[in-house]
Task: structure prediction
Amino acid sequence: MKRWTLALGVAIGVAGGSAAAAHAAPKLEGVPRFAHVFVIVEENKDYDQIVGGADAPTISRLAHEYGDATHMYGEVHPSEANYVALLGGDTFGIHDDDPYYCKPGSTDPNCLGAAQPGYVDHTVRARDLGDQLVARGLSWKGYYENLPEPGSLAYIASDPAISDGSRATALYASKHSGFVNFAQVQSAPDRDQRIVDFDQLDKDLASGNLPNFALIVPNQCNEMHGLVGAKVPEDCQGKNKAALIRRGDAEIAHLLEAIQRTPAWNGPDNFAIVITFDEGAGRTREGCCAVTPDAISNFGGGHIPTIVVTNHGPRHVTDDTPYNHYSLLRTVEDAFGIHEHLRHAGETDKGVKPMVKLFGG
Result:
């Protein structure tokens, strides 16, 4: 797959997903059964900056051709808790970007808020989507561009050509992982087969050995986040918003092209690619669906783009139902026949709904 990264990565494989089993299982009410759901996460942009904008032609085209969730929201600012919410159905009190290993009272210099009241352990001891999938005999992977090595628990990592040693020049950041915040992932003996780099993504796409669920996170230059530093390329500088969007949009084009060439995409089983964002561009508190505006960790993370691309599902769909990452988690659970809904993902009484219209129910 053609791409332009700033550092080399290494990775190894994991057994492919149980696609046949997923296809053969009975269909749920609402969301159809899917063999594969791949979620690609971009960073820090509002809906109106992306969909219909001149700097994001690929995402705008996909929104028109496939499914556009026009009222999708994050849970909080800044980034980290939104990734955790997508996988665990809660922010678990996290409301900053401190490393997954931070806890109240920590003296580690990277744990910037550890002395503040209300600070929580950033390692979550609760079930996540990966646990649910494994319990059903299904597979998952997290693909992270510029991860230093398979299974790495590094907080940040970069290319020496651009790095000044700070988080401001880090291509990979664990705050954008989600999975490594969960204790069972940190201690898993097969972590190096599940938490991998984009080199492994390229190999898996080429071989067709695909997991049932994948979380795909480009590096901070390619996901529209941006960096700050004297050696950082101009189109990755955080101040260059239009260039960052163009770069991230081109990365989406590369990823979609590679996924849509696979036998799994072109086969009979259902396959969905979700392009979403962690939070909006500002610190506004737009939100929905089990969000509690007075909670420091769950007050609403802004209006974000989310596009659902399916191989056999609907086309030219605009869905104005209010959704957030809890809704997306619930939808993924339904798509794999998982009847347990993690925490807020189960709160239909608070407006959390599966994305049935976009997934083809």
